[in-house]
Amino acid sequence: MQTPTIIALALYFALMLGIGLFAWKRSTADSEGYLLGGRNLPPAVAALSAGASDMSGWLLLGLPGALYLSGLVEAWIGVGLFAGAVANWYIVAPRLREQTVRYGNALTIPQFLANRFPDKATALRVVSAVIIVVFFAVYCAAGLVGGGLLFASSFFSGEILGMSPYMAGVLLTALVVLAYTTIGGFLAVSLTDFVQGLIMVTALVVMPLVVLFGDGTAESVGALRSVDPGFLSLSSDMGVIAFLSLIAWGLGYFGQPHIIVRFMAIREGGVRAARNIGLAWMLVALLGAVGVGLLGRAHVELNGLELENAETIFILLANTLFHPFVTGFLLAALLAAIMSTISSQLLVASSSLTEDFYRLFLKKDASEREAVTVGRISTALVAVAAIVIASDPESGVLALVANAWAGFGAAFGPLIILSLTWKRMTGAGAVAGLVTGAAVVLLFVLYSFPAGSAFANFIVETRGLDPVGVKDGVTLSALVYEIIPGFILSWLAIWSVSLATAGQATENN
């Protein structure tokens, strides 16, 4: 790696740690400050924090990689996500900001649900906290995989202290994130997310424009059509199930704790401004990611380059097209995408361990200082679990994100929407929805039909899969994205159980 690149990255790391120290001085004296920044985030900070923590490394790795391999048809993921984000800002954000204050000044999503349905308070806090910790360990692992890929392909060429370049990258990414997250808490995470969001969107605007002006519009389009005549088609013989599986990513927004917790922390009266800023940022970022994937494929074809892993197209372009100092800035953008999400997820997971386990079962009268200390320890524990999951270099960023996104979307999505908008919902219905959504997603992801079995053959034929690629078995998620059945069945479970138990539970509406 060249010296200017190292300098640019060093400046980035120093900035992140500096923000962590600043936040440590401002907002870690009590739980509300450490976990929600005192509910006083400016709209711009809340908006970009929500966007940066949402998009993560998949925006610069997973999504461009999918477009690189399959063409414009994968852009439907972005369409679904944008539609889901719009609905989330309009339906969930204003109601969650107001109701989490009204119901006992809840600091976490499990705490809000417990206060909203006091007859099932313990069950809701425990079940939702378990789901948060489990799926966030997987989600954080996706970010660490991105960090490992980045360092292995750009920074390290040989073993570091007996570790592979990939594993060294995983550990270094985890350590930097842990440093500023444990020091500064939610304010540090939100402020670093704000800076990281600016870096990410700048990189996603600059890179595709440089590629396009360098290779030429006509040449790029011709190269993409030579790969496949349908490469630039939004349909490309796509079936209904495939279309729904892509667009259904938008359903996940309603149930992502690391995103909706930003709504709880926005300064009073700032939701509308934050919504406008956040959606504008997201639209530009998604268009940039689509451009990186498509124009990156054109650049590779036109210049006879080789790319072993499609998810590293952003890294390839950064290393080959720009001055080393600019390369450092672009790689910092990728690190920003990765770190912003990991830090947010670690903090939400640790808040659940602190508020919904430690203070609920182990020490109800824990002081504020003790709670903050436990939160920092919990952050480290979740990070260790994520490191273990990410230790497999064959892990795909998009695949891990897809599983965790579906788990949260199905378990919490219907629950959050209905708890904020439907007064007839009961605590029993809330528990039923949580369990049903999470169980369905886990079933679709983990249960595998043996290769050659009747149902496995049905999935292979329905989705047009390569039989050689499914020799180890076929999961139900290969048939349809698991968030669809999970979300629907969770909604039905809440609705049916709530109606069946109406009048039996203590109302808190």
Automatic annotation (TrEMBL):
It catalyses: L-proline(in) + Na(+)(in) = L-proline(out) + Na(+)(out). It is a multi-pass membrane protein. GO terms for cellular component: plasma membrane. Gene3D superfamilies: Sodium/glucose cotransporter. It is found in: Cell inner membrane; Cell membrane. GO terms for biological process: proline transport. Keywords: Amino-acid transport, Cell inner membrane, Cell membrane, Ion transport, Membrane, Sodium, Sodium transport, Symport, Transmembrane, Transmembrane helix, Transport. The keyword tRNA-binding does not apply. GO terms for molecular function: L-proline transmembrane transporter activity; proline:sodium symporter activity; sodium ion binding. Pfam families: SSF. The chain crosses the membrane at residues 6-24, 75-93, 126-152, 164-187, 194-214, 234-255, 276-296, 371-391, 397-418, 430-459, 479-502. The keyword Transmembrane applies. It comes from the Bacteria. Belongs to the sodium:solute symporter (SSF) (TC 2.A.21) family. Catalyzes the sodium-dependent uptake of extracellular L-proline. NCBIfam families: Na_Pro_sym, sss. This is Sodium/proline symporter.
